[in-house]
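Work Package 3 (structural annotation) set out to generate three-dimensional models for the target panel prioritized at the project kickoff. During this period the team completed the workflow that converts sequence records into discrete structure tokens, so that structures can be stored uniformly alongside our sequence database. As a representative example, we reproduce one entry of 528 residues exactly as it appears in the project archive.
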Amino acid sequence: MMNRTFNTDGYCDPGLHYMVDLSGRLEEIKSMIDAEKYFVINRARQYGKTTILSALEEYLKEEYEVVSLDFQAMSSLAFESEQSFVAAFSEELLDFAPGLPDGMEEKFSAFATQSARRGSLQALFKVMKAWCEESEKRIVLMIDEADTAGNNQVFVDFLAQIRACYLKRRKVRTFQSVILAGVYDVRSIRGKHYPDDIYRENSPWNIAADFRVDMSFCRKEIAGMLAEYEAEHHTGMNITEIADLLYEYTSGYPYLVSRLCKLMDEQIRGTADFSDYASVWTKAGFLTAVKMLLEENNPLFDSLMNKLYQYPELNAVISRYLFQGQPIAYDADDPVVRNARMFGFIEVQDSMVRIANRIFENRLYHRFLSNYKEQNKDIYMEGSRKKNQFIIDGHLNVRRVLEKFVETFDYLYGDREEAFLEEEGRRYFMLFLKPIINGTGNCYVESETRNQERMDLIIDYRGEQHICELKIWRGNAYNERGEKQLSGYLDHFGLKKGYMLSFNFNRKNEIGVKEIRLGDKILVEAVV
């Protein structure tokens, strides 16, 4: 038996790869199929859609005839006309239908031949309905990457034929269930093809049931996967701790979980700092994997960043949310918010939008700050030039960082107006900090604290965490409340020292850095 690995390339096979237990999801999906539901598995890129379809095919095969197709395997020419689509679709059926009844193979072959390019969707579905009638088992049709064809009229007509089958299922035996999988929700495909309002109200896929199965990994499932790995490699890892870290940074996004595990197992293990299994499967090894992941180019990150270029409004909304703390209420009718959710940028919690996971947030900060530094090189270069004075015996001196930032910021931007401080202040601090910790540490914002008044920045440097609250000055009373909030937050992280950076609009207050005691805590406060 081959040694199993963590997989991030294509679908996962339990015989070859470490996987979470999918049985609960498969049972939920089968209950929808048993109820004759037609539906879409609509999730972001690399969210495990192909893996779940592959596992579902195996799970259903005793009870149902499962036909699993992939529209990505069909060339763009296949969608140029009805006839070419019928031919290409028939070819795929011949390759992947498990057992066609007598006579059916001949009929589909006729559609697929070059001489029969005049085949119509109506004729194709007439044969498929006959196949459903003759099949001993009920047929489940699954189509992966269905949105590949999203901009083609022939695909809309194809959906309309399936819809007709669904509506007639009580009179004529047809598919038990049809499952489409993709990033784009084909239920909204009408908007791409029909300008008239009458058509906008009549989606060809308005018969689809809601798909509410959670495809993300929970802590328990991640721990189960790690337990299988541990049983084979005996690393001595604290499974609960590593599972919690994986979940906290990824929120269970399948690709990110597997990628971090793969980096630890294959690239970090055997390096100078992590020579064996025991050393790599630790918090230090995990944070090293996070750093590697954030610095690499991969198909998921490339897809996300390309969407920001394709959708400028999405780019602007996410930037304001990250740096200004501008809250975003979830509105299903807002196309920007809807796209952000569909592409995987955000999740919805208590009717409010938040970045989907800590890894995405870090990558997005990196992207925005990288673009921003070209326009604001002075503050970035000051952080870069003075980098060495902030690292003492391998430890980050955050107080020194704040002192130099206050000095540099006042020198460069001290005469700017209030609007500048409110909109840009926090961005400038992160831009100053970036070259100081880059290559060794990273930082992220605790989403629960992000708003237009304050946000808590967590700085990880060589396994040490530092909490720095970034806030807009709203008077002494507000500042004192902030001190108490920060003190409580330090308790959560088990820390005795915290930092606060205030962007002050009251010119009577002196800029600078001071240290105060609050109970058993030391708070270092900086004012610019």
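DSSP finds 20 helices and 14 strands in the chain.
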